[in-house]
Design brief:
Elements: E1 4-7, H1 9-19, H2 23-30, H3 34-42, E2 47-49, H4 50-60, H5 64-67, E3 68-69, H6 75-82, H7 87-95, E4 103-104, E5 110-111, H8 123-132, H9 138-148
Antiparallel strand pairs: 1-2, 1-3, 4-5
Length: 154
C-alpha cells in the first residue's frame, strides 16, 4: 500500500541546494514533473506518495524520515501491533466480526480502539477454518505413520 507522507519542504529545498541540483535536475532524477516537485518545495502540497519520497531521499542521499514524517498507523494496524498480531490476521478477525466494537467509517476504513477485546471464534469462522483444512486420506495417514516410525496400517 502506498501511503501519503507529510513533507518537510524547507528541508527538501536546503538538501537539494546543498547537492547543487537545479529544480529540473532533481525532478528528473526523482521521476516526477517539475511542477509537482516545485509544489513539494514551496509547501503548496502537504503530503506526497511514499514511493516518491523514497525516490527523492535516494536522490538527496538521506533517509526518508529526514525529509518527511512517517504515516500514522491506521487503527487496525495499531490494534494488531498492540496485541501482537499480524495485519493480515487482524483483518481476518475484523471481517469475521471478532474484534469488539470494530466498525467502518464513512471512508471505508476500519476503526478499532487500541484496547478492544478479541472475541472468540464464531460458528462462521470455525466452518471456514474447517473447510480450508486438507482432507486426511488413508494415504496421508499411512505416510505420516511411516515418517513417525510407526509400523502397521491405519
Amino acid at each position: 500500500m502506498n501511503k501519503l507522507r507529510r513533507l518537510d519542504s524547507e528541508k527538501i529545498k536546503a538538501l537539494r541546494e546543498a547537492k547543487g541540483l537545479t529544480l529540473q535536475e532533481a525532478a528528473d532524477r526523482v521521476g516526477v514533473y517539475l511542477t509537482n516537485y516545485q509544489k513539494w518545495e514551496s509547501g503548496a502540497v502537504e503530503r506526497a506518495k511514499e514511493s516518491n519520497m523514497r525516490s527523492l531521499a535516494r536522490v538527496l542521499d538521506v533517509h526518508i524520515d529526514e525529509i518527511s514524517e512517517p504515516p500514522a498507523p491506521t487503527d487496525l494496524e495499531a490494534w494488531a501491533y498492540h496485541n501482537n498480531y499480524s495485519i493480515i490476521t487482524a483483518q481476518m478477525f475484523v471481517r469475521e466480526g471478532r474484534i469488539e466494537g470494530a466498525y467502518k467509517d464513512e471512508k471505508g476504513h476500519w476503526v478499532v480502539e487500541k484496547d478492544a477485546k478479541r472475541l472468540p471464534p464464531t460458528e462462521m469462522s470455525r466452518a471456514l477454518w474447517r473447510s480450508q483444512q486438507p482432507l486426511r486420506t488413508r494415504y496421508q495417514r499411512r505416510r505420516r505413520a511411516r515418517l513417525r516410525g510407526e509400523h502397521g496400517t491405519t
